[in-house]
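Q: Start with the shorter request: fold the first protein.
A: Done. Sequence, then structure:
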Amino acid sequence: MLVHPQFDPVAFSLGPVAVRWYGLMYLVGFALFWWLGRLRARDAWRGMSRQDVEDLLFFGVLGVIIGGRLGYVLFYKPDYYLEHPLEALMLWKGGMASHGGIIGVIAVMWLFARARGKSFLQVADFVVPLVPLGLAVGRLGNFINGELWGRAADPNVWPWAMVFPQAGDGVPRHPSQLYQAALEGALLFVILWLYSRKPRPPGCVGSAFLIGYGTLRFVAEFGREPDAFLGLLALRLSMGQWLSLPMIIAGTALFVYFRSSQRAGEPAVPAGRKARR
């Protein structure tokens, strides 16, 4: 079996300031958003400029941080933070929820679309393929920190099972951070990037993100150890799985609606020509 390498969480220091790997992963995610967004903005039919990308990045950072923190406070420890409200502001103590970060980004996209006179669906379809690689590097940050480890795994069945000393029990576990980086990060990015290369009915790319992230997160959670203070909930599903189910349901309903609306609104095919699908 493998043992977690126990990376130093501090990447480097600048005098009294310690720069941590987890913070650097956030910066890498935002940099990837900026770079990929500028690439997508080259396609005039997307209706977004490079300046739009930079503005979205600025406000998106706020959406990720505020939404991620509020999501953790409200979804995972509402009773605790109700008794200790000031600690909700102490980001340096850790505690971010990716589902909350996604809600924060959705709020930012809505406000941006309204301020710029753009369609929310247009903005969402542009933004969501830029998100998964940020999620992937965030999970790599979790792995470097040796946190959010997986459930117990038999190394005879899972040769990559890994002992995380931070768990304190010496039990070989699934490196679920890497599962999530690969599934809801890299794989979801490839799916959305390829799907969005051509014009799609408005809203379809955004709803595909909801379906894809919700499904892949739901699957990856089977390898992740539930939070100790929550454990498994109803039907032996984790909080992450219960938060993913509404995304899958809503995404599927929206995808079907947007596809059917586009077909219903298609112009008639001129005589003598066959419709191409």
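Q: Next, the second protein, separately.
A: Sequence, then structure:
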Amino acid sequence: MYVDECFYLNTYKGEQVEDFDTLELRAGEIVEEMTRYRLTEITFAAMPEAVQYAVKKAVCAEIEYLDANGGADLDNGAGLQSGTLGKFSFSSSAGAAEGGSGQSVYSPRALRILAPTGLLYRGGGC
């Protein structure tokens, strides 16, 4: 567990979500995956405080992203099929519903938050 609901609501200023514990668990797993498992609960404890703070914010961003896009089921490939908010209405095409153009489970904001930490680095060293 990287963040608690108090950090999410009071420090990150996230939107209220249902089933916080499930979303936090899933978001933490996804952020670990983003970093190609350079981040784990064990390695997290040894990271500099600034990197730990960025990880916490990235997990919070992922929680919001999951909540806004169908909850923890987004990670299971169950993308949003349709929805309405006020005057705005969305409906996916049949190809997208069948996985033709799947939605990323990675929050764009979480990726931007983690970018300066080096945890997303994909290159090799000499």
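Q: Describe the second briefly.
A: The longest strand covers residues 82-85. Residues 5-77+105-117 form one domain.
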